[in-house]
Amino acid sequence: TNHMIISKVYKYSEAWNRGLKKNQKIISVNEIEVEDLESLKELIDENLNKNKAVTIEVLDEDNARGYIELKDN
Length: 73
Fold this sequence. Notes:
Blueprint: E1 4-5, H1 14-18, E2 25-29, E3 32-33, H2 37-49, E4 54-59, E5 65-70
Antiparallel strand pairs: 1-2, 2-3, 2-4, 4-5
């Protein structure tokens, strides 16, 4: 399975504050596997527009699994 790799995270951005880092692989959003940018964007927008939290599952370079939660304020 191909996973998206985060190429850049701006320091002090919301993503950075939540723990997203360069070179992490995005595995899923709300337990739905993500394989391309379009599906990633759709899943995030769809959930945030319904005022639902978005949980992004990531793997770091050491294959340690992590979960990042995003909410629309």
